[in-house]
Amino acid sequence: MSNAVTLSGYTPAQIRTIKQTVAKDTNETEFDLFMEACRSYGLDPFRKQIHAVVYSKDRPDRRKMSIIVSRDGLRVLAQRCRDYRPASEPAQIVHDEALAGPTNPKGIVSATVRLWKQDNRGEWYPVIGEAYWDEFAPVMDEWAFDKEAGKRQPTGRKTLDQSGNWAKMPIVMLTKCAESQALRAGWPDQFGNIYSEEEMERLKTDTTASEALHELEQAEREARVGGAGILMVFDDTMKLEKVPMGMVHDRCADFLRTATPEEAHVFRVRNEHALRDFWVHDKGAALEIKKLIEGKEADFKPGQAA
């Protein structure tokens, strides 16, 4: 039944919604891990307490999923710890005007947060969390349009990422990082492998100029040929056909359903790299195509192909 509750506690329809929203870039294995983390931590993705972020999703050698817990999620977990008490005073912020500039508009050096933990005797003692601007602020390469090259290129300078809240609320963001540090220091069993979104912002900008340039050039190439897609061969003319990424599964499936075992085998050989690229993009859909090919090849006898 479509409204049956699964072992995760969500209906299939709810699981699909989670996959399409807070975990939209995950593959099957990563999504299973994320759902298990939701269950294990007792956090609700629908309340934005937890979500998944996949870094370098289009580069298999650098691909990495991180499970991110929001500040609300962290506090939910903290409240379950009977020996936890929140900060009783504002965070201590250290400034240095000499550091003020494009990468640090307010010249912030660090933020220190003091939480409280109760020991076995019932006494409360402080747990300190410190976060330094240089370690957490999402600083990135500055890009500008180069008239001679006719395109955007790195200028060689650094700047603070303007896309998020670090430029708007730098003190708040660094304070959140310090609070996360304190939670891990005082309650390692509960928070040892949990990271807040603010702590992970820097990973989004930790790419070299050459990597950023590679991604830009790839996007420009895709734009020139009509968007992202995969070049494939479907007949003996060896003509390359650019199939839009969203249509690769249907195009391949239509071809394979009417293909002979020999044609399916030749198709796999000719499109080995293209199918591998599709696997990286959409593992589930690529697996279905793989099964179709294997089903056809089961009746193929070596030596038949030209």
UniProtKB/TrEMBL annotation:
This is Phage recombination protein Bet. It comes from Brevirhabdus pacifica. GO terms for biological process: DNA recombination. GO terms for molecular function: DNA binding.
